[in-house]
Amino acid sequence: MSELLALDKVTAGYGESVVLEQISFAMQDGDSLALLGRNGVGKSTLLVTLMGLTRLHGGTIRWAGGDIARVPTHSRAQAGLGWVPQERFMFPSLTVEEHLTVVARPGNWNLARIYQLFPSLRERRANMGNQLSGGEQQMLAIARALMTNPRLLLLDEPMEGLAPIIVQELLRVVRRLVADEGLSVIVVEQHARLALSLTGRAIVLDRGRIVHDSDSASLLNDPEKLDRLIAVA
Question: In the CATH scheme, what is the code of domain 1-80+199-233?
Fold first, then answer.
């Protein structure tokens, strides 16, 4: 496998405020990473930094062998970074199908495959974005990112506030993307055990720094350490 993403001593934040300090890690094609930590430690900031939406104070970000530290957000998306933000960002003036087709790029993911992955979106394809339930909006947000045919999918709190039946459906989808499709994924998730069950590797942040880096299975199998790192009940 070839190196897909590499951060070296990345320090970033908003304006003069520094949130992330000296972040270094790398991912290969097909890797899956759980990004864990308490609220406010910089997990979402790391994702938006990858998308070019923060101020980079230092360090380098390499994507598929090239430096993207100064590359604009839309160019990062075109290069294969797919972002599913926590806010979902539905457009009330677009139908479900328009949400998907307006961002479509050539590749394996098309409308037929998306509707196979999310049958409920096919049923709701003529509905407007603001006419969907929270769970349907999350499905659409993931589907929309997949329609860009990304090489790396960034999922920011994908299970937050959803009914258990929807959580189980999304877990099925993410497992399929990782295990069957071989898609590289970074998952930010407060439900640490769910994220660890989906991924091969785990990084824990605290106060903007990496304080733990291991395979997901070993952390999942050490509940005492997991609780100590992220204060999980």
Answer: 3.40.50.300
